[in-house]
Each structure stands twice: as structure tokens, then as C-alpha cells.
Request: fold
Amino acid sequence: MPLTPDQLDTLAGLAIEVPSWAYGNSGTRFKVFSTPGVPRDPFEKIDDAAQVHAFTGLAPAVSLHIPWDQVDDFDTLGSHAAARGVRIGTINSNTFQDDIYKLGSLCNPDAGVRRAAVEHHLACIDVMRATGSTDLKIWLADGTNYPGQDDLRARQDRLSEGLADIYAALDPNQRLVLEYKFFEPAFYHTDVPDWGTSLSHCLALGERATVCLDTGHHAPGTNIEFIVMQLLRLGRLGSFDFNSRFYADDDLIVGAADPFQLFRILHEVVRGGGLDAASGVVFMLDQCHNIEGKIPGQIRSVLNVQEMLARVLTIDEAALASAQASGDVLAANQVLMDAFYTDVRPQLAAWRVDRGLPADPMAAFLASGYQEQIEADRVGGVQASWGA
Ligand code: AFD
Ligand code: MN
Reply:
């Protein structure tokens, strides 16, 4: 069933935040491969991110990572972004790479280290004020490597205190988004391992504390769409970090590993009102492109989200509700599968042209010469990397 004009209007509202770190070099603990043309500073990262939006119309915001994206003047960086048709989105803190955080940050047994971690987040809030960002995203690598290393409950109490200090510093228009991850880099336990822990801290903090759901942060086989439904039902889904995983937190192109899972997740987003502007749900990518082209990898990612969302919008919801109400198991499943198998690409291509965008954004970018130009221009300097 083709998309209706109303459904296309819904699709037109899709806005995806791309991560600044996706344009830098990244890799695994075995090797970080370099790529010609990689940005050397946040300004060049913004230039590359703006290409994704220019060719797809899907990526108007760029999330920053502090201190990776630290600059002397964030007003200048914000103006640079605006001049390229994008804006600064979420500010991601980083309390996982400074040596003082070896035993944790907000959960560290040392009060001085905990204070330093709070101060880092207060500095991130200053960056938010300078860039107009409204979301402070906190992912903590905090955890322990051995049983007995630390008091699990005391760590939760420390975490609660640190988060409260940070939350109290937020301006009324700002939110705290607390991201969970069931493992890594700590081996024995992680202090924010699951959506329940993140949610419990958010509920204790207040209504402007919400959960970030990174699709790569769950044990294999987890029903992620159930978590999406539940957090939307509770009004506490702040943002997604979309990516794909095969064996760990791989940060691969979203939809590449399991397009059907992305379809099911987006179905719960639509059913739960997550597409409505009032929902406040931010659709971020959190990806690293280790061996694939950086800008093409991001273009592929945002197109995957658009395509799966388009398929979701073709679901015959009336027929689905009727089959569900009557307990017709196979009919209900068939309604969903019919939508999932709907090839929306020809209609999306035509729709892009109607909106002044290239029918095939990937082909258009590859033919644009931009990549060749940055490889020729960006000689010297130090290529950006996630610094592991
Ligand atoms: C790492 C973490 C987490 C976080 C991201 C940006 O696993 O996903 O969102 O870095 O800080 O991927
Ligand atoms: Mn993430």
C-alpha cells in the first residue's frame, strides 16, 4: 500500500541527530585505521555532517562530545554550523578517558574524583548554554572488574548524589538524558547497566531526567521494542542512540544487522507518540565507521531509519487492531509482515525529488566530488579520533 500524503507529511518530520565522532577515525582495541580526508577539528566535522543533511534532508543536528569537540569559542562553532544549514544538538559528556576515572567517575570511592566528574558535567552545561543545546547526555563507563572491589549499593548512592548535583545545575529548558549499557568497559558490573536503573535514577531526579536507549546496549535477544514501548508509556524516553550490533556494542550502521528489529522499534515509536514533537524524543545516531566511508556510512544510516519508518507507516493499523482484538494470531502477524516487506524505495525516491532532494542521496554524494575535495584539502594536522 503506497504512503498517503499524510503519511509522507509524518515522514517529513523525521529529524536525526548525527554524532560528531562518526566523522573521525575509530576502530577496535586492536587497531584504529585512518581514512584520508578525516576532519582535524570540530569545524570540519560539522562540514562533513552538513553534507549528510544537504543530500538527505534528514540530519539537521550534530551532537557534540566534550572534550573531543572542545573549541575556544562555541558561539563561533554554532555560527559555523548554522552557516552550513545544521545546528548543535545533544552534548555528550566524557568521564571515561581521563586517568582519574580509572575506578569510576560519579561512582568513584574518592570524593575528589566524584567532584571532578560533577564539575565536568557543569562545564558541559556551559557548552549547552553557549550552543543552545537542550540535552546533556550522560553515559558512564563506571563499574568494577572484580567481585568485592567496591560496594555496589554505595556506588548507587554516590551516583544518585552526583546526578542530583548535575540535575540541579540544569536550566529550565535543559534535560538530562541518562544512557544505560549492560556491559563494557567494566567486566564484573556496570553501575548503569539497564533501563530500570536509568529509569529509577531519572524518577528520583525529576521530570527533566529521561532515559537514552542505545540499541547496541542490550544482551542478545533482548526485546528492545518492549523497552521502547514502556519508556514511552511512562513518558521517560529521552533519546535513542541508534546503531547496529553483531557481537558487542559495535556501533555499526543502524539497520544493517537487523532491519526487522529497527522496523519493530519504530513501530512502537509511532504507536507510542514518539514521533510527535511534543514527545521530546531525540533520534540520535551513535555510530563509529571503522572501515567504511564516514559520510557515506552516515548517509546510509539516516536513509535506513527513513526507509524503515516509511514501511511502518504503511501498516494497516485498523486491520492490525481488528486481528488483535479477535485473537487472530496469524492475521495480525501477516498485517505487520506485509508492511515490513513493502518496498517503499521507489516512492521515497520520487518524494525526494518533489522536495528538491536527490532521488538517490548516496549516489548524489558520491558524484559530488566532496570526498575527493576534502582528501585533497585536509593534508597535515591531526585527524580526529575517539581517542581511545
Ligand atoms: C560509547 C558508549 C555510549 C555513548 C557513546 C558516546 O558506549 O554508547 O553514547 O560512547 O559517548 O559508544
Ligand atoms: Mn550510545
